[in-house]
């Protein structure tokens, strides 16, 4: 019997910030009655199984990339890892597509995220339609498109750090060098990542009317998401966040289901939050990749103490080290707040006692702050984070961006200033809080049945389904 249910094959880079939106996208697809196969590495699947409950309605295809114990940044070669991941990932996709066809459940669409341009090549070779799931904002895609495809890299030279320098990119506000993704700056040293972006855009340009699904929503990036050059069409399908914290269509959907870090049950942070006044707590988390220097830890600690606000600080141990040992004022800190190695970020952001989020501005954290209506102190580090911080402060009006010293450290006094601006009686802080509540409502409306992102994703599934039905009719 011919297959009538659309079958999607999804693959993403095996890092937390990529797995979370990809898995949530997969769950959204299954709610629209599609068959979903998720390809991932041995290491990622093992860690997901240990740390969280893996979604049951998704079929996982697990393959070895040669790093079954995980990639170790300090000792493993990044270029070798990317090459292995590419060759073994491509082999897994080809084998999965072929075996599914033989079993009567052919893949109708291959969806891949942005560090995997080779997945589009596999799809073309196997005669399967493909779509890019862009897990950063549409604004950042625009920057990369004009930078790599339209010659804007020639405009961003060594003089870009001058105070008077700026660049105008269609559909975006005026950007200074500190607002650009780090991969576009002369100081960038990640040539391997740049080559992947170039390859991605090259492959998209080879495809007529490429499908680009973006983890954003129409109201948030109204200009940035518009058509580019008459051939690049982006479609908002986000925020890709568990339903319980967004549209409420599935109250049991309270986690992404792909945590790579095991939760610690020794810290009852939610119980502690329950004892604090509404809107009073400062939450500090810089994602899974940022490593804190001793100087920055000390500065953050003193800034928190000077703010006199209760805080929840997620600070991870380095391998073989205690993250708290390097901080000189631990006794005073523990009297004011709580320090944990892990927490459920969405549970924290949606808690009524939460008042402010000090964040690295990774796109997942940025969207989560929006969906939960929490204003932020923006402390961007690299990649898309500087652009996200620019948008949070100057376009969406939900945050304040820190100013670093000449060594790149955010001093304690600056941290205190920004926290007080968000939580104190400052007029700008009141505006941020109001804007945060406004975007929370827009985010939830987008994902509800009939909302812009819901309808965009439904239309995409129906389009793929029309190919499926056409194949069934021929068969």
Automatic annotation (TrEMBL):
Pfam families: UDPGT. GO terms for molecular function: quercetin 3-O-glucosyltransferase activity; quercetin 7-O-glucosyltransferase activity. It comes from the Eukaryota. GO terms for cellular component: cytoplasm. Its EC number is 2.4.1.-. Keywords: Glycosyltransferase, Transferase. SUPFAM superfamilies: UDP-Glycosyltransferase/glycogen phosphorylase. Belongs to the UDP-glycosyltransferase family. This is Glycosyltransferase. It comes from Helianthus annuus (Common sunflower). The gene is IAGLU.
